[in-house]
Amino acid sequence: MSQSVSNKAPSRLVHLLPATLVLVLAVIVTWLSYTREPSDAFLFPRLISTVMIVLAVWNFLRALLGLAKVGDGLDSQTVRRVAPGAIVMIVLVYFAAKMLGFYVASYLAFLCVYSLYDPASHTAFRSWIKRLSITAAFMSVIYALFTLLLKVQTPRGLFF
Amino acid sequence: MEFLQYFGGVFEPTSFLLLLGGTIGGLILGATPGLSPTMAVALLIPFTFQLEATQGLILLGAAYTSTVAGGAVSAILLKIPGAPANIATALDGHAMAQQGRGTEALHVSFLASGIGGVIGVFLLIFLTPVLARWALAFGPSHLFWMAILGVTIIGSLDSRSFVKGLLSGCLGLWLSMIGYDDIQGAQRFIFHDSLTGGINIITALIGIFAIPQIIEMWAKGRVPHKITAVSIGKQSLLSSIRLLSKNTKALTIGTITGSIIGLIPGVGGQIAGLLAYDQTRKMSADGDTFGKGNPAGVIAAESANNAMVGPSLVPLLTLSIPGSPTAAVLLGGLLIHGIFPGSDLFDNHPEVAWTFINSMLIGQVLMVIFGIWVASYAARVAQIPPPIMAASVLVLALFGSYSVQQSMGDVYVMLTLGFSMYLLEKVGFSAAPLVLGLILGPIAEANFIQGSMIAAAMDGPMQYFLAGPLNVFLVALVLVSIAWSFLSSKRDAKRVNAAAKAAIVNRTADEDETSQGAST
User: Fold this and answer.
1) Which of A137, A78, A11, A51 is nearest to B392 (CA)?
2) Does residue B483 belong to the interface with chain A, where contact is any CB pair within 8 Å?
3) What global pTM score does this model have?
């Protein structure tokens, strides 16, 4: 079954959807370039957006006519595998970094991402000791490099 | 032969230790994803306050040289270019590493860097006055066409889809225009507060190259780590030298391209590497193997980006015009010591100028020796299991992008660009053209605006931008590059279709045989 799925050519929608989004973006960029003031500031953007919209239309027509064949798109299995890591990254970086502190959020991001994709058992005590130790060691190196050596001041929240 | 008089200065204990420290430190910083040569040199400037001018320059020069070469390590092992100059290196270098030829790729990379770099520094020493005059002949129209030439090369880099390659380049050019326009004082395409200051190139580089790589690791799921993320084979240095000697054409193209590009103010190593890679691919009989682990790709890119280092200092040291972003930071390093480039430097401080230039020559040799040594240890990066690698690269990316301007906005931009790039790559768009567009954008725009102003006071834009032998030559190169790329894309598409048809015919024949056998 999986073999037949992998042999199947990606549907036209795989190319049509991104081609439409790129075309919409090109239209917005072109519209902004030709309507915003001062017009002198948009001289170069007008030049680029004109080329961009021509290419975006070309790309859209190729996708519409089924001529676009480069790229396989995303399958549901990939989405299922990527989603947990992406959610962790978004939650910890966009929300937790300012609330908990940059270092704590980064520590949690490292630990969560490592644990989510680590094939070792999630119930074994030794696996967790290993994960926590590696995370702590790596974050110590990051602290030495960025805070002690490069004097980078990170946002502090409730913690560090 | 004035430079020989000052050779001894390099071997003074403090100077030599700084040269050694700068080289090794630069290699490690360059190999660390997210730490660019520009960033490394800028971060080192405060450390030079306490040093003499010559010693300070030696440290900065060594870091400049070795970070450019060190960036190849992460490009080859992780497919994350340490610097824009290493973008082209990642194309074949990472493919070689995936084939178990990582050590070979690292060896030829450092050897090519060293040879290109030494020739580049010799050019700096011997041809400074002549080449500086030639570089001066480039006006805004020529620099604009050079940038456009870079854009058209973008299309040819992504030979899988000509239109998507060029479109990726246009997206990059558009991204470069986001933010505050300094000339007109206008805000452009600012959809979020994080974009007010524009998109920082280092932030963008980290996001575009690191995040899709992390997501690719995630996409494999919770698989047991039986093999390394990038398997690296054993390779003796001697056989790598033999391999390099078989690719003298790529080395020559890379060195010549890098030397010429380095002389053109503002263009920089990223274009040198990509242009040399592209030209080598086009001139090669086995051009189809480029991007699939051809060592000529690594040799061309690395010899070019290091050959660029010496010549990029010609306009800097003679005219105060930096040949690359890192050279611009180096200019700051000169000025804080009260030294002004130009005739003042060579007339009043010849010991500073020549000791610095000589140190770059010795630095290239040290870079090869220590580069190969550091690379053999850096190869261990690939032994780390993918979940740890993904988590490490993620945290490095977060801190690297944050530390550029100490802004959370940069982190958001980095992640957004990274996620978008992953999705775009899945439908055939490419990261390299997008990044090149982002880098070329400010160069192209600044020279386009400057040229338009000059044209308005002269015979009009058509005359200014299209007349003159240099303009005609550059425009012809642009057109040839577009035509070549388009034809290559068509040829590849035909080949793919023919292969697909052959596969269908074979499958039908197999099915017929099977059904006949069953009926019999």
Assistant:
1) A137
2) no
3) 0.70
Per-residue pLDDT at A110 = 92
Of B171, B173, B398, the CB nearest to A93: B398
C-alpha B65/C-alpha B310 separation (Å) is 9
Closest of A80, A62, A58 to residue A70, by C-alpha: A62
pLDDT score, position A30: 94
Structure tokens at B41: 């040199």
3-state secondary structure of B342: coil
**CA A120 from centre of chain:** 26
Contacting residues for B415 by C-beta, under 8 A, at least 6 apart: A89, A90, A93, A94, B207, B211
Which pLDDT value is given to residue A7?
Answer: 47
Contact of B168 with B430, CB cutoff 8 Å = yes
Please provide the DSSP assignment of A50-116 as one string. HHHHHHHHHHHHHHHTT---S-----HHHHHHHHHHHHHHHIIIIIIHHHH-HHHHHHHHHHHHHHH
| Euclidean distance between CA atoms B5 and B246, whole angstroms | 37
Q: For chain B, which ranges sit under pLDDT 50?
A: 34, 227-229
- With CB atoms and an 8 Å threshold, state whether A18 touches B427: yes
Q: Would the CB atoms of A81 and B220 count as touching at under 8 Å?
A: yes
Give the pLDDT score at B229: 45
Q: Note whether B449 and B233 are within 8 A (CB).
A: no
Shortest distance between the Cα of B260 and any Cα of chain A, in A, equals 27
Contact B174 A15 (CB under 8 A): no
Task: Find all residues with CB under 8 Å of A48, minimum gap 6, and list them.
Answer: A33, B170, B173, B174, B177
Closest chain A residue by Cα to residue B168: A52
Instruction: Please check the confidence at residue A61 and state whether its pLDDT lies above 90.
Output: yes
Who contacts B388 (Cβ-Cβ below 8 Å, separation ≥6)? Answer: A114, A134, A138
Residue B463 three-state SS: helix
**If residue B286 lies in a helix (H) or strand (E), which one and from where to where?**
none
By the 8 A CB rule, do A125 and A118 touch? no
The three-point CA angle A46-A52-A53 to 5° equals 90
| B216 contacts B418 by C-beta, under 8 angstroms | no
Residue B303 CB contacts under 8 Å (≥ 6 apart), including other chains: B112, B113, B115, B116, B250, B251, B254, B255, B258, B276
Q: How is residue B51 written in tokens?
A: 């040093």
Residue-level pLDDT at A25: 94
Task: Over range A62-71, report the average pLDDT.
Answer: 81
ipTM comes to 0.90
Identify all chain A residues contacting B452, using CB atoms and an 8 Å cutoff: 43
Q: What's the confidence (pLDDT) of residue B43?
A: 59
B167 Cβ under 8 Å from any chain A Cβ: yes
CB contact under 8 A, A71 and B427: yes
Chain A residues with CB-CB distance to B444 below 8 A: 44
- DSSP helix/strand/coil, B188: strand
The pLDDT of residue B417 is: 92
Query: Can you give the pLDDT at residue B50?
Result: 65
How do strand B179-181 and strand B186-188 relate by DSSP bridges? Answer: antiparallel
